[in-house]
Amino acid sequence: EAKIQDLVPEPDAAALRRSIEYHLKYTTGKDPSAATLTDWRLAVSRAVRDLVIAPWFETTQRVYTEDQKRVYYLSMEFLIGRLLEDAILNLGLDDKLRSIVGNFDVDYAALLTDEPDAALGNGGLGRLAACFMDSMSTVGLAAYGYGIRYNHGLFRQSFENGWQAEEAEDWLRQTHPWEFERPEAHYPIGFGGAVSVDGAKATWTPAETVLAVGYDTPVPGWRGRWSNTLRLWSAKPEREFDLEPFNRGDYMAAAAPSVLAETISRVLYPDDTTAQGKELRLKQEYFFTAASLADIVRRFLAHHDDVAKLPQSIAIQLNDTHPAIACPELVRLLMDHHGQPFETAFEIARGCLHYTNHTLMPEALERWPTDLMGRVLPRHMALIERIDDHHAKSVKRPESVKILDGGEVRMGDLAFIGARRVNGVSALHTELMKQTVFKDLHELHPERVVNQTNGVTPRRWLYNCNPALRSLLNDTIGETWVTDLDRLEALLPLADDTAFRARFAAAKDTNKRRLADHLKHSMGITLDPTAMFDIQIKRIHEYKRQLMNILHAAALWNAIRQNPEKNWAPRIKIFGGKAAPGYVMAKLAIKLINDIGATINKDPAMAGRLQIVYPPNYNVSMAELLIPAADLSEQISTAGMEASGTGNMKLSVNGALTVGTLDGANIEIGEAVGSDNIFIFGLTAAEVAATRAAGYDPASHIAAEPRLAEILEQIASGAFSPDDPGRYTDLVTNLREHDWFMVAADFSSYWDIQSKIDEAWHDRDGWHRSAVLNTARMGWFSSDRTIRGYARDIWNAGTAY
Ligand SMILES: CCc1ccc([C@H](C)CC(=O)N[C@@H]2O[C@H](CO)[C@@H](O)[C@H](O)[C@H]2O)cc1
User: Fold this and answer.
1) Which of 95, 253, 590, 784 is deepest in the core (most CB within 10 A)?
2) Beta 201-205 vs 143-148: how paired, if at all?
3) If we measure between CA atoms, which residue out of 129, 153, 134 comes closest to residue 219?
4) What band does 9 get if pLDDT is binned at 50, 70 and 90?
5) CB of 357 closer than 6 A to ligand 1?
């Protein structure tokens, strides 16, 4: 097999050094003696970016000349994180650049972390899209990502007296060196207005139009041998500036056109739980979807003339329902711009579209009021009615199956009916999808639903973020695991090798000390790296049950004080996660974690036994620091509610043991690593459903679990909030009377499994053995495997590697 380096000749150090100096002087216009850290970072970024250009152009050329089928991944979110270190490691330049930058007397580590995160997403869905982009390039699949170039990504989180505070994120304040503006890639996007129909021909005359302008970011695969494109759309006014009002001194009116237009791509909605139904959100969804489809059809027609052939040439993936307007939009383009009759247009469109569902939470399923849809997108509203009608006629469907219901457009049903394939993101989730939200549609179209269990990129989430383990793996089994993660199985026999286990444990210890140093520096707190790092990092949500985790911590606090002599495993519970700004219960949970944490951390009896840590502003870069340092991975959602999870995969492949419910991908992780190497507890999804159906009485469970009863009483009486004793009254009442997420039902089982974990921790060798087996058996959870699954089962597209 050709050595990768031969494909992309590595630049020698001198050439790299010259390129950095060139960019500092001539692109940034800075004399090295006056350059700031950011100037150096921009210069290094541009020097590295230059190396991605050739394979980028080659990829584009090759895809054109071979007329390869293209995949278009449409997502409202791409939770990318930082790009410089990822590109450097992808191209194998880290050692060279570390010394070159050092010779310029610049702190290499500081230069890498000077880059702001591209936080263009909320959580799982957005990060999955970013992992998929990396994998599509690495396996050599011709793909484009399409999204929105938000000026402001996910808010910055800080804690004010333990309460979450939000601040606008501002990643574009500095130049973003990885994007190329594409003024030529611009499309007018219409809103509102009216539709005139003469005969079969309909003409939509929008009331307002904004321009969508594309910004391209190259997405280099492993070793940069293939590079796809991420095209993000920015909203611009058709007319930059209105001189007339300006001349009469009405400056606001003069600027209004651009302010209004740019609002569309100004900020990411920080909500990943509840579809708010805001008009601006709908406009964002249509804006990027319409611009992407216009760009896709233009590119197709550049080399093809028969739109009926579209499904052979392209496959479009809808990342949840957020781009589901793509179905009526593509039908509109094919009918109104390419003269296709409705039935043909619909079949062509459906032949191109594929929909991924990421949640079964009713409140997260988008349903747009028909009057809002009709006002903002009148032509589409008419076509949605036609699609619904056409479906009703083409299949004998039960009354319950309909897109239009109670004055709302059900975007999940529209996406399902308008797609060729629909997939869930874990085996359990896909089954539950077929049994619940899409039960009737699945019965009508039994061939349409397939499963594609999520995955994560082993580049960012192992090779890049865990240098200690990376070098141990490379030394032990070579480097091929990076693009073929199943090769980690070569570690299996080494789980029984004491020397290897010791080196594996040493890598974990290195990562724990690195995290401890970082938190010492950023929060002024001291962590004992020999303690168990028990980590729960994800968006704050009641179904993810951070509450149950902190209730366990409080019960542990009581138990340790009641029995200080017992051989408690020293434990540091680390939380990370943001709450949607409007999500009151989630924000209360954050405050409770900080309140209980403050009480535990100032209790001398807890020294060396229990500590609570909650660093603010959890994001991709912080995850890259926390995940390699984890001993225990908390995946404790109410069974049936976490579609998959991806943090669970990242933590396990980095040698953390999982404590979790049989939910989402936890089940498949358990099957892969073996039941001896994972801690499963709690009700199953079926038991949760049955318990609900039978009528769930949390109070009876609380009465039967004195530890829980005691802690709830303490919380309700203000033991952790002396400054506001009644702060948690509602929270405790809700738990005692409703507890929709079954914290009370699962608490005893959770307490028991955590005691088992305490014992397991004392058998350090046994723990390390399980940790090695976790890493060794996580090959399946590479997003390369997931993408190969989509290419085979959904897109019918080839991969070069
Ligand atoms: C309309 C508001 C909104 C925005 C985003 C979402 C996302 C679908 C929420 C999300 O990120 N879901 C997560 O997707 C991951 C990737 O598939 C899964 O691993 C997680 O289990 C799922 O919660 C729902 C509702």
Assistant:
1) 784
2) unpaired
3) 134
4) low
5) no
Q: Are 634 and 678 in contact (CB under 8 A)?
A: no
How far does the centroid of ligand 1 lie from the alpha carbon of residue 123, in Å? 7
- In whole angstroms, how large is the CA radius of gyration of the chain? 27
Question: Which domains occur in the chain, in start order?
Answer: 67-82+117-342+357-362 (3.40.50.2000), 528-762 (3.40.50.2000)
**Residue 186 banded pLDDT, cuts 50, 70, 90:** very high
Nearest to 192 by CA among 325, 295, 283, 285: 283
Pairwise CA distance, residues 40 & 353, whole Å: 44
At 229 the three-state DSSP class reads strand
pTM, entire model: 0.98
320 within ligand 1 shell (Cβ under 6 A): yes
* Nearest atom within ligand 1 for CA of residue 364: 25
Atom of ligand 1 nearest to the CA of 123: 11
Q: SS3 of 203, please?
A: strand
SS3 618: coil
Among residues 1, 47, 7, 3, the alpha carbon closest in space to that of 24 is found at: 47
For residues 133 and 66, the answer to whether their CB atoms sit within 8 Å is no
Which of these is catalytic: 273, 483, 646, 661? 646
| Residue 276: pLDDT over 90 | no
Pairwise CA distance, residues 580 & 122, whole Å:
9
In the chain, the amino acid numbered 590 is: I
Instruction: Judge whether residue 454 has pLDDT over 50.
Output: yes
Tens-place pLDDT, residues 358-390: 999 999 999 999 999 999 999 999 999 999 999
Nearest CA to ligand 1 atom 10: 125
ipTM value for the complex: 0.99
Burial of 607 (0-12, 13-18, 19+ CB in 10 A): exposed
The secondary structure element, H or E, covering residue 39 is: helix 37-65
Check residue 226 and give its pLDDT.
97
Marked catalytic residue, from 41, 82, 231, 358: 358
Active site residue 460: no
CA 358–ligand 1 middle distance (angstroms): 5
Distance CA 286, CA 187 (A): 13
Q: Which helix (H) or strand (E) holds 355?
A: strand 353-356
Probe target for ligand 1 pocket from 320, 543, 666, with the most ligand atoms within 8 Å of CB: 320
Catalytic residue list contains 646 = yes
